[in-house]
Amino acid sequence: MSEPATWQLDILDVQTAGRDYCRLHLAAPPEWRSTPGQFVNVRCDPDVALQPARVLDYADDRPRPQLQAAEVRKRTPLVRRPVSISDVGNRSGGGREIVLLLRVVGPASALLARKRPGETIDLVGPLGNGFDLSTPTDRAWLVAGGCGVAPLVGLARDLVTTGKHTTVFYGCADAGDIPLDLGKTPRKPLRPGEPVAGAAEFPGTQLVVATEDGSLGTRGLVTDAMAAHAAEAGWDGVSLFACGPDAMMAAVADLARANGIRRCQVSLENYMGCAIGVCLSCAVKVRADNAQGWTYKLACQDGPVFEADDVIFERTWEGCKR
Amino acid sequence: MGGLQTVSAAMEIAVGKIRMRNPVMTASGTAGYGPELAAYFPLDRLGAFVTKAVTCEPRQGNETPRLAETRAGMINAIGLANVGLDAFLAEKLPWLRKQDVPVIVNVAGSTVDEYVEVAGRLDEADGVAGIELNISCPNVRRGGMEFGRSEPAVREVVAAVRKAVRRSTYLVKLSPNVTDIVAMARAAIEAGAEALTLVNTLSAMAIDATKRRPVLANVCGGLSGPAIKPVALRMVHDVYCGTARDAGVPLVGVGGIQHGTDAVEFILAGATAVQVGTASFVDPSAATAIARDIEAYLSENGIARAADLVGALET
Prior knowledge:
Number of helices of chain A: 6
Shape of chain A: globular
Order of helices and strands of chain A: EEEHHEEHEEHEEEHEHEEEE
Strand order of the largest sheet of chain A: 10-9-8-7-11-12-15
Low-confidence stretches of chain B: 1-5
Strand content of chain A: 25-35%
CATH architecture of chain B: Alpha-Beta Barrel
Mean pLDDT of chain A: 86
Number of strands of chain B: 16
Radius of gyration of chain B: 18 Å
CATH topology of chain B: TIM Barrel
Distance between the termini of chain B: 43 Å
CATH superfamily of chain B: Aldolase class I
Helix content of chain B: 25-40%
Number of domains of chain B: 1
Oligomer: heterodimer
Structural class of chain A: alpha/beta
Number of strands of chain A: 15
């Protein structure tokens, strides 16, 4: 993987996905090397304010008011936002592209979703450790909730390429909440844990979906769908790779432990200030061989991928909190 | 690393015994122990490097969440997480010493004795150009800010540490969470501070109305970023006019500096040098960009030396 640096990358394409997601396709620098599970830290600038001529329709050719980028930045979300690298691949016209998938949840992500092809994006990366793909088992089960599906796209392709039998489990609120291209074919009702026809993003894999309202796949949590799938397919030789909210990661870790899974890696979602290891905001409590039995590690440097058995998930009234 | 380094006599300034090639330092807690930022720019582009706070024993810091973004700012409650004095001396300082930049170590403690011990051992160590006494951290239960909130307390800790700091330049970082910043500055100067850093973060909180809970696990934290710049600027101005100018004590201005013009404003208000903190989270090389901007300001305005700008506010 390449050393992290600050990049200005051209935006090639912006697509909406599902109800609340958007996918940004960026031109990858030739020297870019990242591994599935790594992330970038993105500056969220307002594109429209930078280019007022685009929204103001002038009849004459008098000088357009132009704001300096530095002036505009004084009004934008302050710190960068960490975003998973969804995939890095070849683009049709030659060269490579970096794909980011993000969920629009607030002003910063909304600004990114308003970006258009031809504009640039300012990011620091690649950051973090990424998943370890060297697990010597035949079957890979990938588990995601919400935006956690992003890093699994590149991960699944690498696993399929190396001959692993790969199954993706995805949990979300309802069928409209899925940021994946499931095709237009009407789907027959599915038994719990039964794979759907498949998603364009996950070629060569099985995709099992769990929705909270039962509008697609298994009704309930993604761990319910995993258990139902395992009732037929078994747990033998399975390695787990998971990314999603803490409560889901804690449940996946419990399921892995209960079924003797040899290795379960979880990618954690954390608030970050700097993502370069100086602000110490993204602390993760992990088991340690010291007097108190734990220590803090940083999601941005030591993670975001951790061994599930190392992470101390603490239950609170909110469900789960580290 | 290395690369073309701007060496300009116009930018050189001094804070106490520390000679700096430009007026820009990192702010404590926003630059780690050096290697983290060195991945983005060579540290010799800085006027000085200020470390994360060091305490006697290692500290884990507070529970998470530790950070909340607010309008034009952010609130942190890290809680002085650090590797501790022994590990700093053994593992962090040797690397820093090899960089061509003056190193200022931020020192924190829970008791006066802890401050004295940490500062004393650092002062004896090779490669420590300055000690920055942190009597202003709002995020720890004991110590930290409580030493910076009354004149007798400031006097006691600053005078006690004064005896332990013999070789390096002695800076004291003040809290803005006081009724009269000039009184605190005067107390610190009278107790032996050679320079004052102002200001640390402003006590603040963020609430999640949906959950009816504080956002931070620590409930309250310290506000930084552009939101606090006008407050910090006013405090630098007041302290400069109220005591530091006459006492001949240099000020290091910090609080919301994002651009070169922000830094110039602090220098005009009376700061000899500035620190860049939260801006480094947004752009890891912000400090070097700000140094370049200050230099451009000098040449554009026909000012011979950065030192000529200190306190040059026309009122």
